[in-house]
Amino acid sequence: MNSLSDISLVAQVAVFHNQRAFDQLVRKYQSPVRRFLLNLTLGNEALSDDLAQDTFIKAYTHITQFQGIASFQTWLFRIAYNVFYDYKRKSQPQSLSEKEGNGNIPEDAQSVSLGSREGAGESLKMDIHAALAILKEEERACVTLQLIDGYSLDEISKMLNMPVNTVKSHLRRGKEKLTTYLKNNGYDGNK
Amino acid sequence: MAMTEINDQLLEQFFQPAKSVKLEDNGFTERVIHQLPDRAARLSHWWTFFCVLLGVVAFFVFRGWEPIMIGMLSLLKMNIGDIHPVPIFMTMGVLCCLAILEFVQRVERSQI
Predict the structure, then answer these.
(1) Which of A109, A123, A128 is nearest to A181 (CA)?
(2) Pick from B11, B19, B33: which is nearest to A19 by CB?
(3) pLDDT, tens only, B10-58
(4) A191 touches chain B (CB under 8 A)
(5) Whole-model pTM?
(6) Contact call for B33 and A22, based on CB within 8 A
(7) Domain residues of chain A, as ranges?
(8) ipTM over cut 0.85
(9) Which of A57, A131, B34, B42 is most enclosed, with most CB atoms within 10 A?
């Protein structure tokens, strides 16, 4: 039902360039897309919002390329990842794997605890973004999509345009690094 | 095998608080909609370009300079007293209306 209403809205945007219909799509998906990019940028709100805007504008201008095979959200996440990847490639021409994935949080990242953003009282003992900073980009994308957003391997594979086996490899390496990192920092899951 | 289960449990617990985070819109949607390319304006620009191009081509194909030259020559030969004032006033009126219309449209566009 949800995907049907999405397809109906997408059709209105594609055929009539209906901005009200697109407004509804943006309102519906702004939170997951921004949260995904916030995790990829290690908590840099301004940057993640800029990338999210670019994502939605690209989605609008290329809306006719949406074929409806995957869900609209999957398609949006794929654009979001490409936008993020393009940004990183332009801003850091050298291999990202050399700069990141060493446990150092990049300078532009704000170390904001997701617990405190939510304001629900439950604050994390350890910063999620600091933990994600030890991962390479691809590992971070796979880990956040599975562990935070709850997507399946197939969906992650479509979103990141990677074979399922590659996604599995990134997940395994990412989880191993995170587990070691958490244990080394005294997080045992009971705190 | 047991190690993987422990890892997953630990990671599940660690990322659990992040799952429930819902980011408020806070004007994000408005900013996106405001930045969308305006298709009507783009079409309008193309239409204007097409019309100007058509006009220039027609000017040269139909030798548009000849009537202009004839008109200018006849103006030079004409006495000022022979010119009828009504067509001049009408032309001035039309030009003023067009100028006001353009001004209002520009003001409206700048307010959006």
Answers:
(1) A128
(2) B33
(3) 898 888 888 878 899 999 999 999 988 877 777 778 888 999 999 999 9
(4) no
(5) 0.68
(6) yes
(7) 2-184
(8) no
(9) A131
